[in-house]
Amino acid sequence: MPEFIPGLRLSELFYHEAVKPILEADFAGLEYSAALIGFGSEVLGFDTPQSTDHNWGPRLLLFLQDAEYPQYASLIDQSLSQKLPYAFRGYPTNFYEPGTKLLQAIANGPVKHYIWITGVGAFLKNYLGLNYHHPQELTVEE
What we know:
There is one protein chain. The strands form three sheets. Strands 1-2-7 form a three-stranded mixed beta sheet. It contains three helices and seven strands; from the N terminus they run αββαβββββα. The protein is an alpha+beta fold. 31% of the residues lie in helices and 17% in strands. The model has no long low-confidence stretch (mean pLDDT 91).
């Protein structure tokens, strides 16, 4: 097993060194944001080598504008699947799902990456239950 790299750092490096160059080459000018937010001990900086046993590895979220999501999500997914390296900093970039996502080394074929491609609005609605097209009014009960 490679030397442990905290997941936030691993994902940051993965984005800059592997994901971003693919996006710049194949989707020049596309506006997006990338982050590692949500679940996982690494999101809060609590990961340890034991954390690598599930839902951990070179991963991130890629946020597209809602209007561009339908046109680009599948194309980006396919591009990343075909062009990502099979390993990054010693960790496989391929995952399989026996109920939870686990790293799986492969030597050929498309990478089943763990890059969640989503629209900003869809993320807010699915993850937080918010619809940013309809501002929420907060009320305070006394």
